[in-house]
Amino acid sequence: MEYKDLTVLVADDFLPMRQIIKGILRRLGFINILDVSNGAEAWECIYSNRIDLIISDLNMPEVSGLELLKRVRGQERTMHIPFLMITAEAYERPVVEAIEAKVSSYIVKPFAANTIIRKIEQLLPRHLPRSHAPAWECIPE
Questions:
Q1: Domains in the chain and their CATH numbers?
Q2: If residue 116 lies in a helix (H) or strand (E), which one and from where to where?
Q3: What angle do CA 45, 117, 70 make, to 5 degrees?
Q4: Which of helix, strand or coil describes residue 66?
């Protein structure tokens, strides 16, 4: 599996953060990168596209990243998609809620590019077929 064959959805209401994440994804070899500014747009995008990885901010307007995660995990069609949550929350409760909702992994802002690269490589190992990528194991920072 090569990253160029996969589609990633980046959901964050802060445009500069989406641009940073997309730049990191391109460096990893991703070509198919969709980006949206809120959870409602993300859900529409997930429902109408084949998505292989979701990278979402926790706090977004309309539908939060946590609510988006719950929707993704609640649908048989999408429950397998690896979900990387990014948050600026310094409190334990939002992270615990995300873990309980079966987030695949999370990163706390600010983060280094190597941190997100490492998380993506753990969630989408290049040598495993897409159907065997670990989606449920939470990989803490």
A1: 3-132 (3.40.50.2300)
A2: helix 113-123
A3: 40
A4: helix
Cα dihedral sign, 116-124-140-74 = positive
Give the N- to C-terminal CA distance of the chain in Å, as an integer: 25
Q: Which two tokens stand for residue 29?
A: 């070899």
Specify the pLDDT at position 5: 92
Among residues 3, 44, 36, which one has the least CA distance to residue 17? Answer: 36
- In the predicted model, residues of the chain with pLDDT beneath 50 are 127-141
Indicate the SS3 state at residue 36: strand
Distances (CA, A) of 130 to 20, 35, 141: 25, 21, 23
Q: How high is the pLDDT of residue 93?
A: 86
Strand 53-57: give its sheet, edge to edge.
32-36, 7-11, 53-57, 83-87, 105-108
Report the candidate in 50, 48, 66 with the shortest Cα–Cα distance to residue 11.
Answer: 66
What are the backbone angles phi and psi of residue 118, rounded to the nearest 5°?
A: -60, -40
pLDDT of residue 141: 38
CA-to-CA distance for 93 and 38, rounded, in angstroms? 21
Please tell me the predicted confidence (pLDDT) of residue 124. 92
Overall pTM > 0.90: no
